[in-house]
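General statements about sequence and structure are easier to judge against a single worked case. For one protein, we set the task of working out the structure tokens from the amino acid sequence alone. This step matters because it turns folding into a mapping between discrete strings. The amino acid sequence and the backbone structure tokens for this protein are reproduced below.
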Amino acid sequence: MELLQGARDKADLRIIKRFMAELSFDVLPLSENVGHRALVYVEEYGLSSGLRAADAIIAATAVENAMPLMTANVKHFRTVKDLELVVFKP
């Protein structure tokens, strides 16, 4: 969802969707457990680290699915205790 939101126009949107399809990305559901965990994260980390709803949903999805989160945006995620981060530089 966040990748698609970054599209500047329909051509970007097609490129992003093709990229995701070619690399066989799995789109994970926004489950009740993910939503609840995201709410907990916003309450716990929102004021101290600037964690917002979208990033909380991303973090919660990774944790609920027992997957690491690969990001270049360490600032918002580093305080989430349950989250395994894999940091990269774009």
Notes: The two ends are 19 Å apart (CA to CA). DSSP finds five helices and two strands in the chain. The helical segments are 2-5, 10-22, 32-49, 53-64, 74-77. The chain has two domains: 1-27, 31-90.
